[in-house]
Amino acid sequence: MFKSLVLTMCLLTGMAAQAAEVRDPLRPPGAQVRAAGPEARPVWVLQSTLVSAEQKTAVINGRVVAQGGWIDGARVIEVQPTWVRLRGEAGEFVIRQSKIALKKNAR
């Protein structure tokens, strides 16, 4: 009986440790997990931008936001093809699009 209990405890401990290491396969490249608690700060991931004469929008943390709009307590000040300037509680800051190798079409 004691051996069964010890074996079960070892297996459950191993499973809990293994479950903590599982990575979300749908998380965008470069995304970070937010820390829990009241002092947690937003993690900013610029995924895409659209800059034209008619509109300037960006996809930040999976959400589409236009220049002048708000996201997670920060205002989008400027949208450029590879970066976005935001203004939050700590002042202005720039987030840049991560450099991801894209596949090219075969000729």
Topology diagram in text:
Layout lengths: L1 H19 L25 E6 L4 E5 L2 E4 L3 E2 L2 E6 L3 E6 L2 E6 L11
Antiparallel strand pairs: 1-2, 2-3, 4-5, 5-6, 6-7
What does this molecule look like?
The protein is α+β, with helices and mostly antiparallel strands. It has a single domain, classed as Roll (SH3 type barrels). Helices cover 18% and strands 33% of the residues. It contains 1 helix and 7 strands, in the order αβββββββ. Strands 4-5-6-7 form a 4-stranded antiparallel sheet, with no helix packed on it. It has a 3-stranded antiparallel sheet with strand order 1-2-3, with no helix packed on it. A hairpin with a 2-residue loop joins strand 2 and strand 3.
Mean pLDDT, as a whole number?
79
Regions with little confidence, pLDDT below 50 for 5+ residues: none
What share of residues are in beta strands? 25-35%
Instruction: Give me the count of strands.
Output: 7
Query: From the coordinates shown, what is the CATH architecture?
Result: Roll
Would you summarize the structure shown here?
The chain has one helix at 2-20; strands at residues 46-51, 56-60, 63-66, 70-71, 74-79, 83-88, 91-96.
